[in-house]
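Can't paste images in this forum, so I'm doing it all in text. The chain is below; anyone willing to post the predicted structure tokens underneath?
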Amino acid sequence: MSFSIDNIKHSEDLSTNSSAVDTVHKEANADVFGEIFATLGDHNGFYIGPHHVCDLPIVLVDNGLHVYFSKSSMLSSGLFTEVDHSIVRTSDGQAPALDLSVTNLVVFQWIAIVFILLVFRNISKKKKLAYNKPPKGFLANVAEKIILYVRDEIVAPNIPYPKIVNSLTFYFVATFIFILVVNILGLLPGGHTATSAIPLTGSLALIAFFVINGAAIKYSGIKSWFKHLLGGAPVGLAPIMVPIEILTLFIKPFSLTIRLFANMTAGHIIILSFLGLLFFFNTYVLATIIVPFSVFLYLLELLVAFIQAFVFTMLVAIYTGQSIGDHVRSEH
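Text version of the structure:
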């Protein structure tokens, strides 16, 4: 009798221990998705993939300018602390008045800008040495194809005024190449996609807003720009049309901001979700399905990197052409 009771107790202990292990295992698996999706966000440090490379300067404006060269120096000052990956004041837990810190995604933007400047500086030097000759080298030929494509296939069809096209092509080329390089940097191993952050897409849209309306005022005149607020309707409908057109002026950059942000973030979330399932279920069986499908999605993301650069540039060109309209002044 004692033997059977001991066996029952032993089996109960084993089941209790196994259930505790299962609980810990499930909790660990549940944290996988949190850790994976945390890599999509911005960080106050330079990261290659999930690996912390170095601290970045933290610049805060709150009753004066506060500059810290690392997070540890900020914490040691006692004025600010970090709660849920956000910097807040230690005294009341509120965010500082203005956070101008250099973040991980800002560094990847700088990398893209430096890369573009170096490439085009090298191309410019070679072009000056052989001005009347066709470009030589892979990068020079690719740059020429991109410039001609943006000018002839994106800008010219939407702004049918050659002088305006030539004067604005540099902006559209710069926008297309910058978005494309930033998108591709995010697909490299360890890279982070800066266009999956609203501050960057919003900044690009804000620049587009000034280009769209600035071009209309410069080439059509301020009078035509105000007339355009009527939307072609009679003057009697001004109380209705003018507010709608003014609202449309701000809806366009807002749509540009969300479209680029959402499209560049969605693909990364899908890929990381599928890869996270491997760690969540902890089985090799799913790997035969998930890994090939994730590779396919990764190649699709490479295509999306080009498409989103094209779509953003194309929409800005369309909006600019619509804003200029048919009221271009004679000297242009």
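DSSP finds nine helices and seven strands in the chain. The first helix runs from residue 2 to 38.
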